[in-house]
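ok so for the tutorial part 2 we go from a plain amino acid sequence to predicted structure tokens. step 1 is just haveing the sequence, like this:
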Amino acid sequence: MPGRCLRLGFARVNQETNALSPVRTTLDDFRATHWLEGPKLLAACGRKSMEVPGMFRNAELSGFAQEAHKLAHDHDLAHGHVGVALVPLVSAWAVPSGPLTRECLQGIIDAILQQLRATEPLDGLYLSLHGAMGALETPDPEAEIIRQIRAEVGPALPIVVTYDLHASVSREVVEQVQGLIAYATNPHRDHARTGAKAARLLLGICRKRLHPTTAWRSLPMLLGGGTTIDFLPPMLAIFQRLRHWERQGKILSGSVLMCHPWNAHPETGWNVLIVTDANRALAEQLADEVAEQCWKVRHELPPAFHTPEKAIQLAKEARLARRLGVVVLADASDVVSAGAPGENTALIAALLAHGRELVSYVPLRDPEVVAALWPMAIGSQHEVTIGAKLDAARGQQLALQVKIHEKRESHGVGRMLVLVHEKVHIVVVEGPALTMRPSFFSNAGLNPWRADVIVVKNFFPFRMFFAAMARLTLYVKSSGVTDFDAAHVLEFAGEIHPRDEVTEWRTADRRRRFS
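step 2 — the prediction. this is what the tokens look like for a chain of 515 residues:
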């Protein structure tokens, strides 16, 4: 006789928070970027749909939904069961920025709870969370989300959670869920695969075929692992080991979470998660081994970056690179995808002083300038002051005579102005100046191939999208909230490497896991 259809709910809350940014994140920021509920969310997770416009065709929720359907179909053929019914709840995604307001966090939670109350009881729930989200008056927002959902659905409902690889892990989260999985790539390119892994785990639990046991270790380290790229040393060997265990079937999942170093979670640091099928001893053993491997690479810090002046000099010397493509300057101090405001003017000033002969494209967030110049005609000239509007304490203002070259609008960033001073093209936007793809500039009416230099405000993902045109990539330190030493001013629950001299990790690990 056919079994009852399993009802699996799924939801997402995704935002990476930079605690040093003074820009607060509100519900409007989520709604401007990505907010879907109910049937519209389910429709966005189809194979031919765009799950997150402007960012991902298939991310975690698509991976989850499509894998759940596949597994249900295969299971039905073998056992004659009815299968799986997917219950879409809420998907809320905002560009990284400063902490969420309390009203924003509760508003998102309330939306999820409202959807839960409007549907029939679930058999399982998948939550795609970030793990490095911050909120005012709430030290651990992800734990708060899970706590309120758990209070609504009861203690027995299986919940599986996925995290970004830069998440922090807390005891409350581990204790409230049946499975916790993180991305296994940096730059992240396994969003859909991570969601699919969550589907396999959740369905296995619901069908009583899997009994996951999670072991975790928490290390007091902000930085380490060199560039932290999964396919380069020193992290390559660690990630290869985890993948090998998963392929062998030795573990259900293995994750190394390398933290977001500008997050104010009191127990920020690296974490290791090993999930086995009812094998506690093995999970604990392997988590310990991988934690030791991670601790050994703590002294391999990120490489030093160029000054703006040095980067421009190298760009000028790279004539062949500019002839065949473009030189990309990554403003590592103002990385919008790590929560920076995106209004740093240091590279603009340096280009005007030392790179006037270079055709350059530079993104900048300045809603005040956009509002003032939007009514003005293309071709008109104006005196503007840019920078230090969102973060007056750290930024530097720059006064310029500019010509309005283009006016456009684009999803997620709102109104866009291209302001030209000599050969410097400044793309001034209302919303986040998230420049991971060349399309940011083409959406503003510029041809990226015609530039000598393109400035991005991103650490790693841009390299995939600019691969076809970037002939030289240079990282620049211009001084801002995503400098690697910027987080040294934050208060953590204990000493943390490399800000403090920490000789061993087990004392902090015991406090974090058991206190």
